[in-house]
Amino acid sequence: MKKISYTSHLELRLRIREIPYDLPKEIYHEAKERYFDGATQKLVAVSFATYKGRVREFSVVYEETEEEIRLITIHPLKTHQKFGRIQSKRWKKI
After folding, report:
1. Which domains, from first to last, does the chain contain?
2. Cα separations (Å) of 12 from 28, 38, 61, 65, 68?
3. pLDDT tens, 37-82?
């Protein structure tokens, strides 16, 4: 199994948004949808999780090498954000 690491940016986002520390790993592992973001040239995992008492959809942006999975950032998604990125072909399903 590859090592999963967090960037300092991701750790900052977790603190600012008060997101549980292990949630990005859970989203990465449980994602039913994965995309390639043409604008950032990064990979995106999308999954639902409970956050502040509500079930929300999250995206976790990451890079993957042969040795490591590097989680870069996390965002709670609004419905129109995901739909817009798919419709504009910014996100391509993988």
Report:
1. 3-93 (3.30.2310)
2. 18, 25, 14, 23, 20
3. 999 999 999 999 999 899 999 999 999 999 999 999 999 998 899 9
